[in-house]
Amino acid sequence: MNILHVSAECYPVAKVGGLADVVGALPKYQNRIGHTAAVIMPYYKTSWVERATGSIVFFYNLVIEGKTYFSEVIDVDSELGFPLFVVRITELTDRKNVYGYDDDPLRFVAFQRVVMQWVLSLKRKLDIIHCHDHHTGFIPFMMQHCPEFDSLMKVPTLLSIHNAQYQGNFSHDMVGMLPRFRESDLGLLDWYGEINPLAAAIKCAWRVNTVSPSYMVELQEKANGLEGLLRDEKSKCVGILNGIDAETWNPATDDYLIKNYTIRTRAKGREANKKAICDEFGLDASKPLFGFIGRLVWEKGADLLPEIIDTALKQHDVNIILLGSGSPEVERQLEELKTTYKGRYNAHIGYEERMSHQVYAGADFLLMPSRVEPCGLNQLYSLRYGCMPIVRRTGGLRDTVVDIGDGGHGICHDQTSVWDVVYSIERASLFYKDKKAFSANQKQMMEIDHSWENAAGTYASLYEEMIPKKVNIKK
Ligand code: ADP
Ligand code: GLC
Questions:
Q1: Which domains does the chain carry?
Q2: Which of 135, 163, 268, 468 could bridge to 8 as Cys pair (CB 3.0-4.6 Å)?
Q3: Ligand 1 pocket check for 245: Cβ under 6 Å
């Protein structure tokens, strides 16, 4: 099958969160099982992109509301295990960050329109266009309802919802950014009086998937306003659990670690990594170490972290390390706590890929008190590195972490509350004391296989279902 992934992020080119990890790994595994899978994404001024070379394979003068944007598609020389293309529209894409600009709606509409023009120009027909999140949500609509792209109408489209909290909605006044379509189709773009690319994609994509089965069920009850739509479209929706790139995320070969380790050598390896990260952060490596890595946003329960840290450190003899950025208020509170709990708690406010790997390899436990977690990759990395996840039972966390009390390998709680998390920290500290059980649990966690091999096959079966079958009409 000839598959094209369209996404705003892709690791290591540009990463904000797990979307990048998925798009940077799934195509690699799809190519390995005999498909041709490529990725197209916007150009950004990230350090990875600035070091890269490539050739321009397509030019297009994109006109949006009378203004012409010169654009090009670059075939990037990469050794990522799949062909990578980036769309450069200098005025809109030559920026450092992936998101967060006032003109984001225009940036992503322009990106999608250039992608469509480039797809029209391709000599080899695509079998599947796989769109990720709202940034690519107009593509299924354009393919079905814009006369310009009529020739693509029969190419199946899949929408993967990585996070329905973010929908990319904007006012009807800006609908002129889209290419021409019949006025009667305007309703397909609308959701509660706004243009909503995620809603449009749910309506127009041939099939829709979420990144875990539980999240699919939850979205029908609570989807930031899209729950009714997801109930209506239920028959074309399915939940497919993400995998991890078991090559990038392998403690035996991970270049970011101070000491590599396998299941057999985990005790020494993890001890060395714990010591290194504790030295770097001024913590005491003889205490149980709890980590948090993530975006400091409401969905991750980040607003509760300052109180969780304060209460846990008052009540328990543990250390806490935090890596994240997001809400300025939460960042401020987390910074403040550093002085109060010097030597027991420390944080790096910012994004630092190296540190994240070292925390998975050095911390004893990883906290994930998420209110919303469509899949979550942190807990999968943490299992692979032998760091015990402490999670709220929601979305993908529910599907991947079972409590030790129920025969599993993690610690689970039901609510995103200070009490639930601090109680889990207490349970974890007790478990930590039983050295034999703790070590046996690390071994079992590291043996779990969450690599993309399985999920790549599941996606392939879904694509197969979508591709129109040729029938013998003589019979
Ligand atoms: P989300 O995509 O919602 O942020 P995921 O669990 O799917 O959550 O993926 C988060 C990814 O981002 C993981 O690879 C995690 O290690 C990484 N990450 C999050 N915050 C940071 C940070 N501050 N520094 C380094 N890596 C981070
Ligand atoms: C989103 C979700 C996260 C998921 C990731 C990759 O960012 O918030 O839970 O793991 O996408 O699918």
A1: 2-243+454-466 (3.40.50.2000), 266-449 (3.40.50.2000)
A2: 135
A3: no
